[in-house]
Specification:
Blueprint (H helix, E strand, L loop, with lengths): L3 E2 L2 H18 L3 E2 H8 L3 H13 L3 E10 L2 E8 L5 E8 L2 E8 L4 E8 L6 H12 L8 E8 L2 E3 L2 E3 L12 H6 L5 E6 H13 L7 E6 L3 E7 L2 E2 L27 H16 L3 H18 L3 E5 L8 H8 L10 E5 L3 H17 L5 E2 L1
Parallel strand pairs: 5-8, 8-11, 12-15, 15-16
Antiparallel strand pairs: 1-17, 2-4, 3-4, 5-6, 6-7, 9-10, 12-13, 13-14
Amino acid sequence: MNTYVGKPQTIKKVNEGIVFNSIASSPGISQVQIAENTGLSLQTINKVVRNLEGKGMVVCTGISTYTGGRRARVYEVNQNKGYIVCIYIQGEQFHCKITNIMEKEIFARVYEKDPALTWTENLLQVLEQMTEKIDRLKMEIIGIAVPGTVTNGRIFNIPAILEWEGADLKEVIARYYSCTIWIENDIKSATMGACSKFLRQDHQNMAYISILDHIGAAMMINRKLYNSKNCFSGELAYMALGEHEREASQCGCADIMLANALKEAKKEKRREKLILLTARMMVNICCVIDPDLMVVATPHLKPEDIPDIRGEIAKYIQEDYIPAIIVDKVIAEKNLDGIISICRSKIEAAVQIVKA
């Protein structure tokens, strides 16, 4: 039998997350059914459901005769409890969406960056415009996906927006909005958007690689988004693949090699250098996490390049160790759905039980 350790308040939050998720996955469920699904006692479930009702998180939607003729109240998530407000930054565009807490779309729009304003001014202006028609008091969480590393709330390694290097964007937004604020790396957001599309039931580990003007990646390990100590995991742009060192502009070795490969591809219509760079990054990932699947999201390669990529990888490791490879288009809307999914998970369950 597993033993779990936690303070009473921690266990209370964990139980709320378990019951909430059970109701979210089975609308119209009774307390008896929740007990069967979760293993929690009816006494605990009754108390938790009352608390969730009091917070407006769940609502009673009627009466069921599920328990052998005995009338039982049934519940579902209160979808109108609040809003998830998310922005995914790609290039000089703000891809925006507002959903309810079950991810049903309320509003969606793409805003172009105003060159007359700073990035921070642009962001605050976009937030103001996209939320002007909703009740801001019902905003549960604001999620921002940025093209940089997010460590302890601060943004680093963000050459596309040097203004935000070292910035605490959460603190800036908190001056204007009182809800929960979550700042996330854009590639981790994109990975969450891709996993629902590509990660099969028998897959456990996935590497997601983004190759645009810069290189980034994120890892799914045991079907969960991997977060390292400093959130630096996946920063393939700084992988030591050649003789280049990190430049003052924050460009890493692999990013410099990418720039050269893209120049050759544009000038001579040849993708050999780009394929080789991609393959070498994949070899190193295989040696570290041995993924079931690697997804490359890029406009610079095509699905028909996969045999050549596999051929280059096979020069370094045995073919049996090469996972499935997918070359995918970069779709900002799908990546935006990833940050929404992350934000919803922050609402549903902020605490995890740790085995003793």
